[in-house]
Write a structure and sequence with these properties.
By secondary structure, the protein is mostly helical. The chain contains ten helices and no strands.
Length: 208
């Protein structure tokens, strides 16, 4: 259960569905309530599938390219920390590749659930590297079951948040969402640094 809570907290912080709410609202402002519900569900499902694929097949990518778990944790930690810094400084959308021309292209799409919402806004490089690391660190079947449960749970949370995006924006406003994103950004930076330190510590212990 501790592993489940740890993974759920880390995934929620790195995915940061609250930071995606303003983008979701902007991209779906012309859609009906029924269409918004469909897009919310499809986005959550797409993100869940991407996360599960990353979790179960990511290690084969490591083996193919000959990347060690230490290199992955350091690289993933840097990506996660940079995502947190982007949240902290209010540049989350640009960090996720949502520049103005990308947003205009997304507005012309009939379906925005897979891109840009599911990937890269939700299931980005930081989240993917985090899950690959989990797969390498926790090898017992029971541990993997808890991690899969955490992925499924965070996907449900993503759906609920996106489905309630209009209510969230009305209740918190842009400033409230921005303030929460900055707090989450600080946590995400800490998670990234923790991964880097744990990799360096493990590598130093191995070498010594």
């Amino acid at each position: 259960m501790n592993l489940f809570l740890l993974a759920l907290g880390a995934l929620f912080s790195v995915i940061n569905p609250l930071g995606t709410v303003p983008i979701f609202v902007g991209l779906t402002e012309k859609n009906s309530s029924k269409e918004k519900a469909r897009i919310s569900l499809k986005t959550a499902i797409d993100a869940c599938v991407i996360l599960l694929i990353s979790f179960f097949l990511g290690r084969f990518i490591l083996e193919f390219f000959g990347i060690s778990i230490y290199s992955l944790k350091i690289a993933g930690g840097l990506i996660i920390a940079s995502s947190g810094f982007a949240l902290l400084t209010g540049n989350f959308n640009k960090h996720k590749g949502m520049q103005e021309h990308v947003k205009e292209d997304a507005l012309n799409r009939q379906d925005v659930s897979l891109t840009p919402l599911a990937i890269p806004m939700l299931a980005g490089p930081g989240t993917i590297s985090l899950l690959i690391t989990y797969n390498q660190e926790y090898t017992l079947l029971k541990e993997k079951m808890f991690l899969v449960l955490a992925i499924l749970t965070v996907s449900v949370i993503v759906y609920v948040i996106l489905r309630s995006s209009a209510v969230i924006v009305k209740a918190l406003g842009a400033s409230g969402i921005n303030a929460l994103s900055r707090i989450i950004g600080f946590i995400v930076i800490a998670i990234g640094i923790e991964y880097i330190l744990s990799a360096l510590t493990a590598l130093a212990t191995k070498l010594l």
